[in-house]
Design brief:
binds copper (II) ion, alpha+beta
Length: 129
Amino acid sequence: MTGRMTSWFILSLLLLGACRAATPTQEAPTVELTEFSIMALGTFDPGPNEITVHNEGEFGHTLVIADNEGTVLDVTGVIAPGESSVYSIDLKPGIYELSCRIVIQTGEGRLVDHYQEGMLTAVEVDTSS
Ligand SMILES: [Cu+2]
């Protein structure tokens, strides 16, 4: 490759990178479950949402979606470790709580409540988007 071609090649790569960085991306709403946290990624929009839920943990988990008054809007079944599911839900602007409500008893008889262990987070559905 000549020096001039190399310069054009590098310039093209820089321009390509700049275009990608400047393009706003609306990422699909995704929820990651693990021990013991819930991470909400992407954009939760007003109206219909297709939410992909991944269980990246070692235990089964669920996803409960409630509004900010505590009304449960949707509950998934138990999602096995390593599995994913897609859920459709209509959301209005507001704050929603995502949590896992599994409670298990250990061999020693101790109760482990996934919610109390930290499996909750909040997402905001915004009108301005
Ligand atoms: Cu859980």
